[in-house]
């Protein structure tokens, strides 16, 4: 089968498609024919680390990609919840799902039925980013009527976060650049702050929850925006968010920082499915790349300017057979 892996070292490493052995599902896994996958910043951050640590001696054993949407073509001996022919989506991410491949084996506890009203493309980019938003709001116990500030509202995580926060009944103030104001408003944000024009950390407003999808901020930089007992939730993808989460855990600080570490489970994916099917949630697609152009998709993600999600079309619509 075809699968994406990394060739070369460090910053000049390229994502390439190669022949790999088709996996066999374990007893609690299904084998999914992958129709669509995506790129997440974690992918290229991990590539940089791996290409620096593992020398390129003709092959590296891993296949990249986390998110997938596709069709079950085989199932393990103990699988009862899914059948061959089911359309599913999800991710594994205990390091990597190996999703950017013709076929991926994945535990049934990490997938759910694909929302019936959306395409594999819209479903296949959603799991990691949308679950990050949903699980961030769960750890913050975001409630109806609460005021939330979402920083990085136009990215992969942010576009889902705005919609999920609205679906939970929160009043949403979104931070994005002038480029994305209309987009973020169209997703339901009640108020929008253009970070290129205004220093939002000096705003008069105060919030019950601050959700920083960028991880460029910390509870300290946003202290004046937080109500008594307010929570700062970070995706800790950058050093500032990461250190803020560690300091908050080690020392008593004025405002607690919570760090979301996304993981896939069927219950949370089912919640997303329900939101998609109620049309309370939709995927914002920044761009779509063919499997052969996967390196370009990574380059696009590395710009840090994606508006929503980047899709990888693993199965072309006119493709009939696979090896
Ligand atoms: N902990 C976890 O489990 C977890 C899970 C998922 C993601 N993450 C991390 O979360 C971060 C975001 O992920 P993502 O998928 O949303 O990334 P992304 O899609 O690449 O984010 C790109 C977006 O960020 C916006 N942006 C850039 N700088 C900004 C700023 N200073 N203020 C506001 N918006 C800004 C850009 O808008 P403009 O072009 O308008 O600036 C663009 O729309 C990454 O660091 C990722 O590694 C962590």
UniProtKB/TrEMBL annotation:
It comes from the Bacteria. Residues 10-312 form the Enoyl reductase (ER) domain. Pfam families: ADH_N, ADH_zinc_N_2. Gene3D superfamilies: Medium-chain alcohol dehydrogenases, catalytic domain, NAD(P)-binding Rossmann-like Domain. This is NAD(P)-dependent alcohol dehydrogenase. It comes from Candidatus Marimicrobium litorale.
């Amino acid at each position: 089968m075809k699968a994406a892996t990394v060739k070369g070292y460090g910053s000049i490493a390229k994502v390439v498609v190669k022949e790999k052995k088709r996996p066999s599902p374990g007893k609690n896994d299904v084998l999914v024919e992958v129709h669509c996958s995506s790129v997440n910043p974690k992918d290229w951050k991990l590539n940089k680390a791996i290409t620096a640590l593992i020398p390129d001696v003709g092959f590296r054993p891993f296949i990249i990609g986390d998110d997938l949407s596709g069709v079950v073509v085989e199932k393990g001996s103990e699988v009862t919840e899914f059948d061959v022919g089911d359309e599913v989506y999800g991710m594994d991410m205990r390091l990597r799902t190996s999703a950017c491949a013709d076929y991926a084996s994945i535990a049934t506890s990490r997938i759910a039925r694909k929302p019936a009203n959306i395409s594999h493309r819209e479903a296949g980019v959603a799991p990691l980013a949308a679950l990050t938003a949903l699980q961030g709001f769960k750890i913050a116990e975001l409630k109806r009527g609460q005021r939330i500030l979402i920083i990085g509202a136009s990215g992969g995580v942010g576009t889902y976060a705005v919609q999920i926060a609205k679906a939970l009944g929160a009043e949403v103030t979104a931070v994005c650049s002038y480029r994305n104001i209309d987009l973020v408003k169209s997703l339901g944000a009640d108020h929008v702050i253009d970070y290129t024009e205004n220093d939002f950390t000096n705003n008069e407003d105060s919030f019950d929850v601050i959700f920083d999808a960028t991880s460029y901020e910390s509870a300290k930089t946003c202290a004046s925006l937080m109500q008594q007992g307010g929570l700062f939730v970070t995706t800790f993808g950058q050093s500032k968010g990461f250190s803020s989460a560690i300091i908050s855990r080690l020392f008593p600080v004025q405002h607690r920082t919570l760090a979301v570490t996304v993981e896939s489970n069927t219950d949370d994916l089912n919640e997303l499915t329900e939101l998609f099917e109620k049309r309370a949630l939709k995927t914002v697609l920044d761009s779509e790349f063919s499997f052969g152009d996967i390196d370009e998709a990574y380059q696009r993600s590395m710009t840090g300017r994606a508006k929503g999600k980047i899709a990888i079309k693993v199965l072309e619509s006119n493709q009939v057979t696979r090896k």
